[in-house]
Amino acid sequence: MAKNRGDVILRDRMQFDLDGSGDRTTLYGRIDLSSYVNPVARDGLAIKEVRFQLRDPTNGNTGFFKPVADFASSGGSVGAQSAIKLYATTRAYENAADVGIASPDVLCVYEALSSVGITPAGTTPNFITTERFYGPKDLHPEGFTVVSDLLIGVAADLWSLEENATLELDIMLIAEPISVTTERMNELLAQGMDL
């Protein structure tokens, strides 16, 4: 829900594929913000919240994303780990492994790690999924100012229960249209030239 009367809620959806091992090299989707940002007129957005929802539209009646990567892959003798990373940024990073909360121009980072514990042969493996989300409220409490389109990055390692699947990522932004000072606009444009 919007925080203030002037806030806008923006929604978008992107699709991405996992390969036969449940891997996805770094891929970007672009959210078009041209209706709200205009560097010449000094119009920008302060993005206050970003929400992600992973979905598998082919999965049953609900289309839920399997939150455990592979609960049987340990084979009873070796632990297994899988990971997925989602993030919003105004800078295209070549590799999602380079993206963290200290990376320039990153609004938020979501990571999920699914682990299968070592178990005796013939028993059901133990598993756990750990999620971490660092959002604009954590990294940029007053809102992250953008004057360009937003990039949504995704990458995955060994999320094998969703192998060969076309997944969907729903994105919701809560943002406030703002007027950007000339000094701040020059900073943002200089950062953009750094790419």
Describe the structure.
This protein is mostly beta strands. Helix content is 8%, strand content 44%. It is built from 2 helices and 9 strands. It has helices at residues 136-139, 182-193, and strands at residues 8-17, 24-31, 43-55, 80-89, 106-116, 127-134, 144-146, 150-157, 166-179. The chain is elongated. The chain starts with 7 loop residues before the first strand and ends with a helix.
How do the helices and strands line up, and which of them pair or pack?
Elements: E1 8-17, E2 24-31, E3 43-55, E4 80-89, E5 106-116, E6 127-134, H1 136-139, E7 144-146, E8 150-157, E9 166-179, H2 182-193
What keywords describe this structure?
mainly beta, elongated, 195 residues
Q: Summarize the helix and strand pattern as letters.
A: EEEEEEHEEEH
- Classification by helices and strands: mainly beta
So how many helices? 2
Shape: elongated
- Sheet with the most strands, sense and barrel status: 5 strands, antiparallel
The total of beta strands comes to 9
User: From the alpha-carbon coordinates, what is the Rg to the nearest angstrom?
Assistant: 19 Å
Task: Give the end-to-end Cα distance, rounded to a whole number of Å.
Answer: 33 Å
